[in-house]
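Case study.
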Amino acid sequence: MEPSDEALCQRVAKRDEAAFDLLVSRYQERAYRLAWSMLRNAEDARDVSQDAFIRLYEAAGSFGGRSKFSTWFYRILVNLCLDHKRKHRWWKLWVRDEDDDRSDTILDRQPAPVVDPVDKMSREQTMKALGAAVDRLAPRQRAAVLLRVQEDMATYDIARVLKCSEATVRVHLHRALTTLKKTVEKR
Amino acid sequence: MARHPDTDLVPFLRGDLPPAERDRVARHLEECPDCRQDAEQLRDLLGDLARSMGQPPTVQWARYRAELREKLEARRGRRAWWSRPMPLAVSASLAGVLLVVAVWGGREMSRGTDPLSPDEAVIGHELGLLQEFQTVERLDLLEDLDVIGDLDGLASGQG
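After joint prediction, the assembly is written out as follows.
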């Protein structure tokens, strides 16, 4: 029987390298994908997700088992992503990465056509606009949406990750989704 | 009708609400067509969002883990150096140097500020403010116009 994440974490605290490798292999894809969704840069996502694993290794002894391992680990990862965004906020004003702006296509740069107002954007363009709108959300709102949609996390667990109340998470999600709904309705 | 459960709809759709709250929201949705429509739109939107997230660039996971290992080893190496106890002679020497710097630095500071140049001394004498320093000291300049308007009163100790 496969050991649980919590059991592996306790073994990592005792410097069990095999347990650490197993935890990494279980979470590497999710960690990288979540970091990429938050940072929209592949290289940063690699670095930050690897930093999260290093923190896991160093802090495994402090995981008391009061929450699920995934909640504890995602808190580390999300905090590192939020810190990374804060540090690079000013730099990003001047330097745009190819990954960063998914909405800047030739189609988006065209002026609005003076044609039939009933014209509707294709499903693909709506998806793209929605993704770009997620990128523009405030960091904590974005984190809440990503944890809900990508990781299918319960509101209670999102609150533990973001270290806020459940009510605050509900407000984050409500505001974020209201903003995103307007993006879709405009199309 | 009870208040609209705007912020409760997302957890409701996932089944996260405790039973009492879930029942309350369900009853409201039966009675409120606007909220029912909102809930359906939210369900569609959450589905669209999942599809819109896209996939990150592919990663070679063996290489990713190897990089992680290198970073971990490098970190351990830095920590080991830092936590290694210094030889006693080096510690004592360092302590001695720090003591000398502290004593010398303290003496320099106790000599006070640089003496005024003759020009600065003349200018200082001409400035009436310095002669009325006690008055100036008791002013909250720039913040209390009433005080500024009664400077004479202050000078005589009435402020």
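Observations recorded in class. Chain B touches chain A at residues 6-11, 14, 16, 41-42, 45-46, 48-57, 59, 61, 64-65, 67-68, 71-72, 75 (CB under 8 Å). The mean pLDDT of chain B is 75. We will return to this complex in the next lecture.
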